[in-house]
Amino acid sequence: MFVDSHCHLDRLDPDTHGGSLNAALEAARARDVRQFLAVAVTLEDVPALVELSRAHADVAISAGIHPMQKLEVEPDIEAIKEVAERSGAVAIGECGLDYHYLDKTPERIPSRDAQRERFRRQLIAATELELPVIVHTREAREDTLSLIREHSDPAIGGVLHCFTEDLDMAREAVRHGFYISLSGIVTFRNAEALREVARRVPLDRLLVETDSPYLAPVPYRGKPNEPAWVVEVAECIASERGISVAEVAMQTTANFYRLFRAAAPEPSAEVREVLARAGLV
Ligand SMILES: [Zn+2]
Ligand SMILES: [Zn+2]
Asked: Which among 46, 80, 157, 214 is least surrounded, fewest beta carbons within 10 Å?
């Protein structure tokens, strides 16, 4: 059983699978992907995600604001908490810092200060709600780690999603109760540094994700991504570590439910076995 720990189900390409999200989910289920975490990039996304999770028992959702979103009004901590609680979100996010485009197109994204303040509010909201955080971080290593150290509770933790940094940063995040989630980027030819992360981060700290519709893995690179292809990410990790895909599937699924406790479904026998491995039953 696989989990796609981070996908944007509300943004899947309408031309894939004849425009049907159901077909994309069915294609994933047919490959044994049994749990999806549909991640918000603004609070306005959340009602649509709630509809999705009502329609599909295997879809959990998050509530949060992406660092690159331009907003008219910046939600305060109470507003973030209220949306998260009302929606049944299992996590706050995705939130974080992304400085990549700041030098090129500063007018199109929030400033460093604005990003830091938005991230800080979401970390505090998560700590107060005792929910894990889904963190997006790019070219903002020191600021990301210092805000996490200051405002995140290691007993609740979170995940650095679509991880593209180095082993040192991964280890520092793990020390603070975080998991490392690898996406299709790990399969890209030029991603040797990331494959080192895949080999060396403890297996009980790894998650897998697609971040679909973005970042399709090899051999689908360049196409709109979909949750079924989380299997290719797991296969890459398995081959890097010299272990079976089944072991990666089992471990990353157990890790997912250990971190996102509220996503744990009505336990079937198979899910119960996974939860037992995660020490949850
Ligand atoms: Zn992201
Ligand atoms: Zn994302």
From this structure: 214
User: Could you say which ligand is closest to the alpha carbon of residue 40?
Assistant: 2
Residue where the block lists tokens 């049907």: 20
Does the N-terminal peptide bond of residue 219 adopt cis geometry, omega within 30 degrees of 0? Answer: yes
Token pair in block for residue 72: 């008219």
Architecture of domain 2-277: Alpha-Beta Barrel (3.20)
How many Å lie between the centroid of ligand 1 and the Cα of residue 94? 6
Overall size of the chain counted in residues: 281
Q: Report the relative pairing of strands 2-7 and 33-38 from DSSP bridges.
A: parallel
Q: Which ligand is nearest to the CA of 164?
A: 1
Q: How far is the centre of ligand 1, averaged over its atoms, from the C-alpha of 254 (Å)?
A: 22
Q: Is the pTM of this model over 0.85?
A: yes
HSE-up (13 A, CA, CB side) for residue 20: 8
Cα(60)–Cα(261) distance, integer angstroms: 11
5, 207 contact by CB (below 8 A): yes
Q: Measuring CA to CA, which residue among 200, 195, 163 is closest to residue 179?
A: 163
Instruction: Give tens-digit pLDDT for 103-136.
Output: 888 888 999 999 999 999 999 999 999 999 999 9
Residue ranges of the alpha helices (H) in 91-189? 112-129, 141-151, 167-175
